[in-house]
């Protein structure tokens, strides 16, 4: 049996640490504190402050608990992706893909475009850009927007599993695991690719079987007018950043260099770029580091290791199920933050880290609240199409189950 260590804390401090941790994760699970307007970033700030106030975390320990490479990578990728957003980079990519497609081919085009872009850029921004674009296309060619909007959300989640920079939880895992970008991509890109085909199959089966295609030449897909001259520099910078990732340069350093180059500009007002940054997410990460650090001092890691031994979490099938369940209970980033201290104790940490990334990401497709990308899609689309819990769940359940099974089987085979 694993001995639980509380690192010199009194019994009162241990109890306080667990209480702060549980209260914080309750808000992460519910999205807000009952009766108060405290959201997830707010709960992370309050929880971190209480860890300091209870002297569970000392001021000199605070910086040690925060993983600055994760923060730098997340912030830098936000700047890069937001710069691309402001100059129309994502619309340009969509135009290249959709220019010669027929309306009947729109669904797979949306799925694979969103999946590919989400693999290399933060999936939340991809969703924010693609939903208005998809709504505009479906409105003009008179198609039901629901399956295409659902395709944006589900494909963005699936595509983001492929790389360290696909979503925030992968960035966290990349920093703590030390897995190289190419290694991560080599193991999880096949899961993402197969997952996108499964996504297409499920959405087509549920929504498109009874749709009669109208082969009218006039119903070609409308595309936005873009100033391609504004895209030259961003395209060069992005190519250099992705190339640096493949060459093995630490992602945080390469992304920071790319973000710095993006800030050297004559066309984008810096204030607009800073307004695009999700500061709440950065605050959320910092607060989470401190809350989990305090809980670790209070003996949380020892308790989790005992749980892992009892339930055989080292078996990838069991671990996949636990991660998927926890990700839907408290959201994927808090789930990864909680489990990051347990994985190094596994017999095969490399496979466990990849399973954690795979399961926490793909589990986000189960419900609307399963990932931030889903919420962005639903809220952005709400003026034109209302997506209820049942609308999402009837496609989210089969997509989640199928992709998790594929991910588990693949990682079990290639480990």
Give unreliable regions as ranges. 215-219
Distance between the termini: 28 Å
Give the overall silhouette.
Answer: globular
Q: Quickly count the helices.
A: 20
Q: Major β-sheet, in short?
A: none
Number of strands: 0
Please, could you describe this protein's structure?
- The chain is mainly alpha-helical and 415 residues long.
- The protein has helices spanning 11-30, 40-53, 59-65, 68-86, 89-98, 106-120, 123-140, 146-160, 168-177, 181-208, 232-247, 251-263, 270-276, 279-297, 300-311, 316-330, 332-339, 349-362, 372-381, 389-414.
- Helix 2 (40-53) runs parallel beside helix 14 (279-297) and helix 6 runs antiparallel to helix 7 (123-140).
- The longest helix is centred in the middle third of the chain and has 28 residues, at 181-208.
- The model is unreliable at 215-219 (pLDDT under 50).
Compact overview of the structure:
With 415 residues, the chain is mostly helical. The chain has helices spanning 11-30, 40-53, 59-65, 68-86, 89-98, 106-120, 123-140, 146-160, 168-177, 181-208, 232-247, 251-263, 270-276, 279-297, 300-311, 316-330, 332-339, 349-362, 372-381, 389-414.
Features:
415 residues; 0% strand; 71% helix; 20 helices; mainly alpha
Detail the topology: elements first, then pairings.
Elements: H1 11-30, H2 40-53, H3 59-65, H4 68-86, H5 89-98, H6 106-120, H7 123-140, H8 146-160, H9 168-177, H10 181-208, H11 232-247, H12 251-263, H13 270-276, H14 279-297, H15 300-311, H16 316-330, H17 332-339, H18 349-362, H19 372-381, H20 389-414
